[in-house]
Amino acid sequence: EIFNMANITDLMNLPLSGNFVRSFYGLDTRRPMDIIDREAEYLIRVSTPGATDVSVSVEDNSLLIDVERDFSEKAQEEGQFNIHGISDYKFSKTLSLNNTNVDVDKITSKYSKGILEITLPKTEEAKPKVIPVDVTME
At residue 9, does pLDDT exceed 50? Predict the structure, then answer.
């Protein structure tokens, strides 16, 4: 993986709570992604066009993302390439969930039209609370 220090510094300055964004080990600049902080959840979107295998799991309090695009067997069935410009790839990313406000048991993901979306709901304690205060009118 390419380790780009400028991008790591940019990530560390994002206004997200805890070490959520900082926990990405390196930033794969070849795989565009969004990390969005919403009121009740975080949303991660990863551009993974043409994926043939997508896996999202939680292990030892880390979110594991594995994506692969492998058309080598299908290509053999179709014939011989004169030009092979659409490359296969493997992409893996680990996100530490230690010291975060993510409800691990409620994480969901979906893959549609080349975009992998992972929703990480925040714990109840992490959601903003509105406490009404009575106002005495005179």
Answer: no
